[in-house]
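So, can you check this one?
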Amino acid sequence: MTDADALRRRTREFLEAHPPAGTDRLDFLRARFDAGLAWVHFPEGLGGLGAPRSLQAVVDAELTAAGAPDNDPRRIGIGLGMAAPTILQYGTEEQKRRFLKPLWTGEEVWCQLFSEPGAGSDLAALRTRAVREGDDWVVNGQKVWTSSAHLARWAILIARTDPDVPKHRGITYFLCDMTDPGVEVRPLRQITGEAEFNEVFLTDVRIPDAHRLGEVGDGWRVAQTTLNNERVAIGGMRLPREGGMIGPVAKTWRERPELRTHDLHQRLLTLWVEAEVARLTGERLRQQLVAGQPGPEGAGMKLAFARLNQQISGLEVELLGEEGLLYDDWTMRRPELVDFTGREAGYRYLRSKGNSIEGGTSEVLLNIVAERVLGLPAEPRTDKDVAWKDLAR
């Protein structure tokens, strides 16, 4: 289906058969998935219609106008933005049919078991091991900075399956059941007072080979699909004008003239323009996605997202003066999502410090932009052809 009018009629027919006001929320979401209106660019039978990605906006507009419930995308963002496109590209038919529907409806929350204490920026240096035993893989290791691990039923996991080859070639990608024996989730309290992140310990966790995604030893290539989608999800989210971090600052500026100074005015104007440029660039990036999978360009968007958030939140604290030093609640809690605009300036200032780390550090992303977008020479690598087991640690 490639015609917007036909898709609009299909959506209205669906709404007539499943009126939002009289349909249970979960039943509505399941029916929407079965009707191919979840993500229209996915194949038929997997929540889509094989339609152009751009036509999703047609469906969403009709559903929003009808007051239909959504799938709470911020709560299940890792599943939607990272796990789903990776499963779609590399999963077996059985895996796609098992995981995509409950992922999209939000019945099963996902997390990402990639980073480790000694393998963050250099993710390919990971030490978590997976050893084959019959039809299972036995996994041992530690992961860190795992968003939503305390809520998740499933995880996307990369582990080392061959220490005798260079680090990028000995990794395999798995789907890990977070309820299995040997999976331990511990909270990591952050500077904000919250523990939205976790560390995860894996002790003799048995993962069926049927939950391997892609070929053995090909996990790094599979993980690139996840990482490229992650950067687009973080840096290229759809926002209205003055959406995101710039909104609260602009609102304060308009409502509190007594706080204004000429210097702050000039800085706010500069950041407002940069935020709008980033927003429009994100729109262009999403249009490019219509033609294929996200590429390294998403790294540039994620870089801009981190830098702008930190500069804007710093300006906001400075604008508010003494008020900007106040903090509403240091209670240790484990939130379901990150709410940048639902709390005060102090929270935004502290939480934005993590933006240049999560989803790939800014330093690593600068290398990606330099090498894969601009075509500059790659940095020298002395470990390129060295077996992982022989690397200095």
